[in-house]
Each structure stands twice: as C-alpha cells, then as structure tokens.
Amino acid sequence: MAKTPDFTKTMQDMMANLPVDTSSFQDAFKSQGVLGEKLARVALSAAERSTEISAQWAKDSISRMGELAVVKAEPSDYTKAVSDYASASAEVAAEHMAAFAEVAKKVQMDTVDLMLTAGKDMASDAQKAAEKAARDSQAAVKKAATASAK
Questions:
Q1: How far apart are CA 123 and CA 129, in angstroms?
Q2: For the whole prediction, is pTM greater than 0.70?
Q3: What is the C-alpha to C-alpha distance for residues 19 and 35, in angstroms, rounded to an integer?
C-alpha cells in the first residue's frame, strides 16, 4: 500500500525560516485592550453622571409633589398649586435635559479623541511593522542568496 509522505519536518523547516514576528500581534492586542478600557471608563463615567442627574430629578419632583398634597382652603388654591407644580416641573425638566445633553456631548468628545489617538497609534504601529517586515525579508533574501551562491 502507498504510504502518504509526512511533510511535518518540511513544514517545520519552512516555518522556521519565515521571518514572522508575533510581537506585533501581541502589541496590537494590548493596544486594543487599552482602548477598550478607556472607552469603558468613558461609558461608565457617563452612566454614573446620568444616574446622578436622574436621581436629582426624581428628588426634585418628589419634593414638589409634597406641595400638591397639602390641604387647601379654596378650590382655586388647588388649581394654582397644580399650575405652579407644572411650571416648576417644566423648568426642572429643561435643566435636567440640558445636563443630559452635556453628558452626551462629553462622551462624544472623549470618544472622538480616543478614536483619533488610537488611529494615529495604529498607523504608527503599522508603519513600524511594515518597516521591520521589509528589513527581515531583505535579510532573509540576502541570506538565501548567499547560501545558494555557495
């Protein structure tokens, strides 16, 4: 019966002679991890601030509700209390919505800044990796040329 040739040794020799540097992959992985960590910090900071705004808004609304629960002498006083509550609620809503908009604006600015920085870093890393690969390839070609000339 025909025996299938074992190319294990041939493949190992071929891979050993190829100039492959895995440090660039490790560096890219680390860079992505750092970027993910920074983006997570931005998101968590925004979530924390948004929670604070929501809690303050709820406190303001609840404290104003107490004014509605007070017994009034005249029916018109109830109308005035509801009207005052509605006006105050609209004012507070505008303030809190502006605060949410500021949080969103900060998240957007921080994210764009992180992405621009990451883009520059990746371009720099890619250029360094390409230059190193070119140097390694040239060295391998010269080595192969001198080996074949002998």
A1: 10
A2: no
A3: 29
**For residue 143, which amino acid is it?**
K
**CA neighbor of 67 nearest in space, from 55, 54, 91, 83:** 83
Contact partners, residue 81, CB within 8 Å, separation at least 6: 67, 68, 70, 72
User: Are 42 and 117 spatial neighbours (Cβ–Cβ below 8 Å)?
Assistant: no
Q: How many CB atoms lie within 10 A of CB 133?
A: 14
Between CA 101 and CA 78 the distance in angstroms is 34
Q: Looking at the chain, which runs of residues are DSSP E strands?
A: none
pLDDT for residue 89: 93
Length of the chain as a residue count:
150
pLDDT tens-place string over residues 21-61? 677 778 778 888 899 999 999 999 999 999 999 999 999 99
Q: DSSP secondary-structure letter at 73?
A: S
Handedness of CA 83, 88, 91, 96 (dihedral sign): negative
Residue 96 CA to residue 62 CA, distance in Å, equals 15
Q: Give the integer Cα–Cα distance in Å for 139 and 142.
A: 5
